[in-house]
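Technical note accompanying the year-one report. For the benefit of new consortium partners, we illustrate the data format agreed upon in the data management plan: each record pairs a sequence with a structure-token string. No post-processing was applied to the example shown here.
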Amino acid sequence: MQVEKVVEILKSGGVVALPTETVYGLISFYGIEGSWKKICELKGRDFHKPLALFIRHGDEMRKWAKFSLSAWILARNFWPGPLTLVLEIKEGIHFPWETAGFRIPDHPVPLKLLEKISPLWSTSANPSGKKSATTAREVSDYFPQGVDIIISQGEELVKGIPSTVVEVGKNGVRILREGLLKVEEVKKVLKIYKILFVCEENRERSVWAQNIFSKMLPSLKILSAGISPTARYKVNEKDMEWADLIITMEERQKSILINRFPSSHRKVFSFREIAGLGDIEDPGVSGNWEGVRKKLEKSLKILKEELEIASCNRL
């Protein structure tokens, strides 16, 4: 595959057919106004049905979609892979629909392209109502005209089963389509019973979080720890393995934990990510004891809402 040639076609508004680990897909460049319409017209697809976006990394999802802890847990566990996450688009964002699918495919061809150009509108390579194409020849038979280039390299890696589509919204989590990723695997990672709060010294913030959240959701098992050598209780590998979800007060602490315990990286989040209110700063440094505690309480309420969404699933 001549990557630069394909990128040039996409940047000029063209449509490309390429293999993924699931089925063949049709893609166009998000950066070209209305390029999604070309794919819909080619397929005979209703313009009101949202397409998916292939993205380079999970952080790109933040640009368009409302934050969801459930979605991030799923993305960290199954991307790159056969999982399409359907999420609500942020208010004020110029986008054709109110929701969209997001995916990072686990196939060398789209991954190489995404290094050079992202995001990409995507959908299965077939006329609407027809079986998804799984070879370059099938794509050619379906679309003798309209596709600017059909990539055959890597077609032997196509498994012929579509991605699993999971919708995550304010009403919970539900499977729209079971595909290559099994529903039981999705269910497993969304079961959160044990939470570990982590700060620096395990004397104020993480202890406060443990005490407050234990009252909010008494059915959960909750512990706290610190990362400092002088912490009241220092986090260890056993704690990291025990927890279903690990939440740090600061983004810096999240990075330290991931570097120290790389096998647990999928489970580690910061309050900055979850609540969007910034770090829960050290009150001993800032001197703002009341302000820090109020911010923590607000962040914990948001966390509670996110966990209720995760548990309110129709899987």
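Partners are asked to follow this layout when depositing records. The longest strand covers residues 83-88.
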